[in-house]
Amino acid sequence: MLDGKPGERIPILKMGEFLLVSIQVEMHDRLVMTLQDELTEQIVRHRARGVLIDISALEIVDSFIGRALGNIANMARVLDASTVVVGMRPAVAITLVELGLNLKGVRTALNAEKGMDLIRRELGLSGRRDAGGA
Amino acid sequence: MADHRSRLAAIVREHETEIVADWVGLLAKVTRRDAVDRNELERHARSFVSLLADAMAADASGEIDGSPWAKVREMLTSLSANRARQGWSPSETATFIFSFKQPLFARLREVYRADAEGLARETWTATLLLDKLGLMTSEAFQKSREDIIIRQQRELLELSTPVVALWEGVLAVPLIGTLDSERTQVVMETLLQRIVDTGASIAIIDITGVPTVDTLVAQHLLKTVSAARLMGAECIISGIRPQIAQTIVHLGVDLGNVATKATLADALVLAMSRVGSLASKAAPRA
User: Fold this and answer.
1) Exposure class string for A114-128: b at 16+ Cβ within 10 A, else e
2) Phi, psi of B217 (to 5 degrees)
3) ipTM of the predicted structure?
């Protein structure tokens, strides 16, 4: 589990000024370091203003991966991209808390939709278009 | 030594009827009258004496762990378990075995009238054996009592952690009773699962029913809050009584930036204003 296939990576999708990272495989140490490198590089290259990291498929975390996820989110923030981690599973949340990793300073949302709203609100863009409603 | 023991078995078997009759008479006297009827007592006594005679005849080692004693052990265990459930005291339960000595020794005295040394030897052997059985009864009694306690704890655990939906996107957890780590675990799991199921963005943890908050309880609360935050839901702690507010400050517990309210009503107002602001900023398309 610790070492995946070499060359394996997590796709980073660019959507306008946002970057979308969806972790759909189980993480291992090398993968998370690759992600860290690529994400920071792409934020700079695309001058991204928002980063959304979806970990809804992630079932197992250890202290290293938990810390690395927090670090990645904080690095993205340092690069002035507002970052939100979405879709954490209950078991993962409990594990992280038990490990003492509260991911302070990392914004979270229940799902990708709410996460996107959060980023848009923060960037001063209107959330979803105000139509019809009050 | 071995032939003395087999003698004991023979004596018990030979005088079974009288021993049982004496014993039941004695048991009826020392037992609470309302607790058990005489017929049942007699049935228990009869089956114990016959099982005991069988076991002694089969295994004269003086140990009661062997397979010949399995039936005796089984009978005593189920007897103790029943009595534990019916609320007998430990000494009342153990008396069942210990009172057997009197009728047995009376028989031994008759048989060994002329042989003082034989009487002493058989009495000692019987005492050792019955003491072991008595201790086993007490242990079985204790164990079934513990089982009952554990079962009740588990039931209490399930009963006391409801998560209720108060409003669209607002959940509430009314906590009742002391928060230990086991309960925190259950509360956390149920709450987080409900957050996933309902998509709630705010959870109110109401501690009106928590009698005391010490550093450990506070730590458990904060853990729950952190876990909910990691999932993307915000927590409000409500129902903080004056004494609890004092304790929290005196203990130096840092609740961090968790919103706290005195009553559930206040917390609901806050929650609705937050949900409302979310809704107005990101109004769903009509």
Assistant:
1) bbbbbbbbeeeeebe
2) -60, -45
3) 0.77
Question: Is the CB of residue B68 less than 8 Å from the CB of residue B55?
Answer: yes
Asked whether the CA dihedral B181, B163, A55, A19 is positive or negative, the reply is negative
Reported in sequence order, the residue ranges of A39-106 that DSSP labels E, i.e. its strands, are 50-54, 82-86
Mean pLDDT of chain B: 84
Q: Does B94 touch chain A (CB under 8 A)?
A: no
Residue A54: strand pairing partners: A22, A86
B59, amino acid identity: D
Nearest to B207 by CA among B183, B235, B173, B242: B173
Q: How far apart are CA A78 and CA B1, in angstroms?
A: 87
CA distance B210 to A102: 25
Side chain identity at B181, as an amino acid letter?
A: S
Work out the minimum CA distance from A27 to partner chain B, whole angstroms: 18
pTM of the model: 0.64
Residues of A in contact with B227 (CB under 8 A): 90, 93-94, 96-97
- Quickly state the pLDDT bin for B202 (edges 50, 70, 90): very high
